[in-house]
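QA checklist item 7 of 12: single-chain prediction sanity check.
[x] sequence parsed
[x] length recorded as 219
[x] structure emitted
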Amino acid sequence: MSVITISGQVGSGDNRLARSVAEKLGYLLVDRAVYEEVLKEYGIVDFDQLLDTPMHFLDRFAGEKRDTADLLNKMYLLFAKRNNIVLHSRRAFLVLSPFINVVNVFLKAPLSFRVQNLMESEKIGERSAEERIRREEKNRERIIDSFYKKRWDSIEPWTLVINTHKLGIDLAEKMILDANARVSECDEVCGWQDGFPGLDTIEADPILGKAVKKVLPEF
């Protein structure tokens, strides 16, 4: 039993790998579309505006943006408590890194490779692809800093950092599956002995759980 979070640089293949890893393992895949639906069910409708922009000084103390960020963190914990799940997220790794049975995966690749991937997948020109990558990653850096006071490119939270340009998607998938098999062997006793809690220690929000159940009946 384990949880896998998959994140990465724009155009590095994180969307594709999240889907394929979940299919291979028979795990439930949770991505941005699910997060949005759960938050809407919970009563938050302006997801993009609230969470796709950095937090300002006053937001740190109160306000809808701070409350929504806290709710999203609780959602990551709720999903993780279920176990056997793949979270495709640019934030979940920060919330779940303390737990023993979590595999945090970060995918990277050279800019030129990622630009080519985005041109092919989005049917856009080279300039547009490069501008989008730089814009999204700069914004991501500011969001991670303002919400979590962390560097988004820090190596600290990651179990695996994989260069998909050098290793390819197939080998990256194998590495994730192998790492997951190893981490799944760590039960709660092993975790506490090593100083890390297990996912069973998470206290889930029951109201949020009802919202998740409406969006994902199989949860």
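[x] summary fact logged: The longest strand covers residues 102-108.
[ ] second reviewer sign-off
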